[in-house]
């Protein structure tokens, strides 16, 4: 087959350059309504704002938003293989547990689910970061202590970075939340992105 010499040279040059460059990282967001962008237009949702923040910082990354509103840690585990797909991400932010707490589910079950998620991700060569959550105060001190301790324990067990509280700086601040007092509004999303971005940059650089 006759091939244009210039085109062939350009193709070969591009292939050589590709071999010399590290692959563009892909960041999986495995979460619930907080990462799915519940109640917000797509332009104001967490994944979109995070992508924009990376671009402003000059960080090349493709974000895969696998947030599903209402999902628990069990739901995240059940759909993990689908979320990873045939082209595994290079990195993942695991941000599950809020709905386990809202439903008063056993922290021990949540821990087992998150443990399995982190194990699967690492087995597929994905570098994860765990985002913590805090139990609703109405569930009592004993439940909160069991629930809140899960995330640090898992991060230590798996030797993965931990962002202690996904809603840091936003939870219980009316001006940063939607009318339900649970989901961040656009301003709240921007606070989360601003605080989380340096941690994710370190994850991608690792």
Please explain how this structure is put together.
50% of the residues lie in helices and 12% in strands. It has a single domain (22-205), classed as Rossmann fold (3-Layer(aba) Sandwich), CATH 3.40.50. A 5-stranded parallel β-sheet has the order 2-1-3-4-5, with helices on both faces. Helix 8 links the parallel strand 4 (127-131) and strand 5 (162-163). The chain has 9 helices and 5 strands, in the order H-E-H-H-E-H-H-E-H-H-E-H-E-H.
> What proportion strand?
5-15%
So what's the overall shape? globular
Main-sheet strand order equals 2-1-3-4-5
Distance from N terminus to C terminus (CA atoms, Å) equals 45 Å
Q: What fold name stands as the CATH topology?
A: Rossmann fold
CATH class: Alpha Beta
How many structural units, i.e. domains? 1
At CATH level 2, the architecture is 3-Layer(aba) Sandwich
- Low-pLDDT stretches are 1-19
Rg value: 19 Å
Give the number of helices: 9
**Mean pLDDT, nearest integer?**
92
Order of helices and strands: HEHHEHHEHHEHEH
List the helices and strands and how they pair.
Blueprint: H1 5-20, E1 26-31, H2 33-36, H3 46-56, E2 62-67, H4 73-78, H5 80-84, E3 91-95, H6 98-102, H7 107-123, E4 127-131, H8 141-158, E5 162-163, H9 186-205
Parallel strand pairs: 1-2, 1-3, 3-4, 4-5
Helix pairs in contact: 3-9, 7-8
Précis, in short:
The protein is of the alpha/beta class and 206 residues long. The protein has 9 helices and 5 strands; from the N terminus they run αβααβααβααβαβα. The chain has a single domain, classed as Rossmann fold (3-Layer(aba) Sandwich), CATH 3.40.50.
């Amino acid at each position: 087959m006759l091939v244009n010499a210039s085109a062939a040279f350009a193709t070969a040059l591009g292939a050589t350059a590709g071999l010399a460059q590290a692959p563009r990282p892909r960041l999986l967001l495995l979460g619930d309504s907080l990462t799915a962008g519940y109640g917000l237009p797509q332009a104001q949702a967490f994944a979109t704002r995070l992508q924009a923040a990376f671009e402003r910082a000059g960080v090349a990354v493709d974000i895969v938003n696998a947030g599903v509103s209402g999902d628990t840690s069990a739901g995240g585990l059940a759909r993990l293989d689908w979320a990873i797909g045939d082209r595994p991400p290079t990195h993942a932010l695991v941000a599950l547990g809020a709905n386990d707490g809202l439903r008063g589910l056993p922290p021990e079950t949540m821990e087992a689910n998150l443990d399995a998620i982190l194990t699967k991700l690492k087995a597929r060569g994905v570098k994860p970061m765990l985002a913590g959550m805090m139990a609703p105060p109405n569930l009592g001190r004993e439940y909160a202590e069991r629930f809140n301790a899960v995330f640090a324990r898992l991060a230590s067990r798996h030797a993965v970075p931990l962002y202690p509280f996904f809603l840091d700086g936003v939870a219980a601040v009316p001006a940063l939340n939607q009318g339900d007092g649970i989901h961040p509004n656009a301003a709240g999303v921007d606070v989360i992105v601003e605080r989380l971005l340096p941690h994710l940059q370190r994850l991608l650089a690792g």
